[in-house]
Structures are given as structure tokens and as C-alpha cells.
Write a structure and sequence with these properties.
By secondary structure, the protein is mostly helical. 78% of the residues lie in helices and 0% in strands. It has one domain: ABC transporter involved in vitamin B12 uptake, BtuC, CATH 1.10.3470. The protein has 14 helices and no strands. Helix 3 packs across helix 12. The longest helix is centred in the last third of the chain and has 41 residues. The radius of gyration is 23 Å and the shape is globular.
């Protein structure tokens, strides 16, 4: 083989190697680690829990995880922009109470669903107005509206539990394919996941959210309308929460004022565990989706093993703490290792 041919072969190998190296650099290592952890937990549960990997079990798991997943999508966008919405579960409850109240009066389910979505839009718009235009910190504003919306839900429906929803609605939400066991509603959820991925990773709005998370001044400098962007985010969060409320009512066949109480902690824990920084400016939708599934598989496995719900709450709290503290500890360790490495190189040069 001539030298020129050898050079061509070597260049091809180099090009392929550099291609895979660049591809590997683009892979989010945290997302990959979470995905491997998810597969590991699934395998472990399949071995230790009878029928865990059956079609029936998988179907119920997917149906139970949908409200958390829906809420996590918009919550991730809000936290990446360095804000937070703690009222999402209360909006779910208020939407559920609205549906129950309208059905209790004998009105049509379509009217009840439309009213619930409108309630979510109004609640989200109120949050957005307080944060974007009044200038309240989102933590303080949404803690207040968390209590407000839950109180309104109690006013709307009281302590009643309303059921008997139209079968054509409940059958779509609760139904599953006989062949695959996958719930009928899953394609709708996939569309919403794709929407969130496009918004965050393939649109000017997504780039603006990252910029906003790093610095509000920098975001204004690159042309982001900060107030309007924040307002739209909270409106989207309220609308998504009302969709989750509609799903919750039809999934469990009951509309109550305390629907989804405490769910915001699980959602925030999943979002932070998925790599979204609590300080904003960092995170991915695929990481959030994988994290939601990881927490769902872990908790569902515990429930099948009849572990107390109190333990599950403790685990959620520990995950929330670990999601916030862990990255900071990792960053400090990495900085120390880099510093010691630079010092060693400087001493060796001398």
C-alpha cells in the first residue's frame, strides 16, 4: 500500500474518531447516568418483585406518572429561568374542584373541562402578573397562591367527593391497548414532551430562558422581553396544571378539593434530580423525563412491596435535598481537583 493510501486511511480513522468524540461530548453525562440508573432499577424491581414487568403493572405505572410528568415539563422551564412555581398542585386541586362542582350541577363534561382549563389559565396568569409585573419573588408569590388556590378549591366543592363522570371520557384516560398495555393517553403525553423539547432546545424562547436563568440583565441585552417571558411561563404552567387536574379527575374517578395535595414536592424533586439547576440557566427536558420515570419506578416498586407512604415522603425529601446539595458538592470537589492538578503541573515545570 502506498504512503498516500495509508494517509487517507489514517485520516478516515481520525475523522471517524473525532466524529464519535464530538458526539460523546454533546451527550449530557448526567442524563446518561440517570438513564442507566433507570434501567438498573427496572431490572432490580423485575427480579425482586413478582409481575413487576408485566403489561398490567407497566400500564398502571405509566398512568400514575402522567400528572407528575406533565407538571414537570413546565416546572423545568420555569426553574431554568431562575423562577419557581409552588402552586401547581393547588391549581390541579382547584381545576378538579371546578370539574366536580359543574358535574354536580348536572352540566356537560365538555363545559366542565373547558371551565377547568380556563381556571388554570387565570391562576397561571395571576401568578405571572405577581412575579413579572408586580415584581414579587416567585417563591413568596406562589407560596401565597398555593394556599389561596387550595382554599378556593375547598370553597368551590367543599369536602365533597364527586364521581360518575361520562364513560367516553374516563375510558379514554383509563383505557389501555390490549396488545401493548400502553394507555391510550400516552401519545398525547409524548406530543407534550416533544413540544417542551422544541421550546427549550430548538427555539429562540428556549435560548432566552437559559439566558434569563444566568442573568436577567444579560437576557435583556440579547433582546429577551423578561417580563412577558416570565408571564407566559406561568400561564403555561397554570394551563398544564389544569390539564393535569382534568386527567387526575378522570384517572381516579373522583373530584376533590385535596386532589394532588403535596404533589409539587415530587415534581420539583424530579426536575432538580433531572439536572435542572435550582439557580437557573441549566437543564434538559430529556433529563427531566428520565428523572420522573426513575422516581416513579422506585416509588411504585416500594408500594408494591407495601412500604409505608411516610417512607416514600421521606425518600422524596431526601431526593430533593440531594438534588440541590449534590451538584454543589460535586462542583467544589471538581474545583479542588482541578486546582491541585494545576499546582502539580506548575511545580513540575519549575
Amino acid at each position: 500500500m502506498s504512503n498516500s493510501k495509508v494517509e487517507v486511511v489514517n485520516e478516515n480513522k481520525l475523522d471517524k474518531g473525532s466524529f464519535f468524540a464530538k458526539a460523546w461530548e454533546r451527550v449530557n453525562k448526567r442524563d446518561l447516568f440517570l438513564l442507566l440508573a433507570l434501567f438498573g432499577v427496572i431490572i432490580l424491581n423485575s427480579i425482586s418483585i413478582p409481575n413487576f414487568s408485566s403489561i398490567t403493572t407497566v400500564g398502571f405505572l405509566l398512568m400514575d406518572v402522567i400528572p407528575i410528568l406533565l407538571l414537570a415539563l413546565t416546572t423545568a422551564l420555569i426553574i431554568i429561568s431562575a423562577e419557581i412555581d409552588l402552586s401547581i398542585a393547588s391549581i390541579v386541586g382547584l381545576s378538579a374542584a371546578t370539574i366536580g362542582s359543574i358535574i354536580q350541577r348536572g352540566d356537560d363534561m365538555l363545559i366542565a373541562a373547558g371551565a377547568a382549563l380556563l381556571v388554570g389559565l387565570i391562576a397561571g396568569a395571576f401568578n405571572g402578573f405577581l412575579v413579572a409585573y408586580v415584581g414579587l419573588p416567585s417563591l413568596a408569590a406562589t407560596i401565597g397562591t398555593l394556599a389561596l388556590y387550595r382554599g378556593l378549591a375547598l370553597v368551590v366543592i367543599g369536602d365533597a367527593s364527586v364521581g360518575n363522570f361520562p364513560e367516553e371520557w374516563t375510558s379514554f384516560v383509563q383505557g389501555r391497548s390490549e396488545l401493548t398495555g400502553i394507555p391510550f393517553v400516552i401519545p398525547v403525553v409524548i406530543v407534550m414532551i416533544v413540544w417542551a423539547i422544541i421550546v427549550l432546545h430548538a427555539s429562540p424562547l428556549g435560548r432566552g430562558l437559559y439566558a434569563l436563568g444566568y442573568s436577567k440583565e444579560a437576557a435583556k441585552f440579547v433582546g429577551v422581553n423578561v417580563e412577558w417571558t416570565k408571564f407566559v411561563l406561568f400561564v403555561a404552567s397554570g394551563l398544564m396544571a389544569s390539564i393535569a387536574g382534568l386527567y387526575w379527575v378522570l384517572r381516579y374517578g373522583s373530584a376533590r378539593s385535596d386532589s394532588a395535595a403535596g404533589l409539587e414536592l415530587t415534581v420539583i424533586a424530579a426536575v432538580l434530580l433531572g439536572g435542572v439547576s435550582i439557580f437557573g440557566g441549566r437543564g434538559t427536558i430529556p433529563g427531566v423525563v428520565v428523572s420522573v420515570m426513575l422516581i416513579a419506578v422506585v416509588t411504585y416498586g416500594f408500594r408494591l412491596q407495601r412500604i409505608s407512604d411516610v417512607i416514600l415522603v421521606i425518600i422524596t425529601g431526601l431526593l430533593l435535598i440531594a438534588s440541590v446539595v449534590g451538584p454543589n458538592i460535586y462542583q467544589k470537589i471538581r474545583e479542588k481537583l482541578d486546582s491541585s492538578s494545576r499546582n502539580k503541573k506548575a511545580s513540575s515545570v519549575q
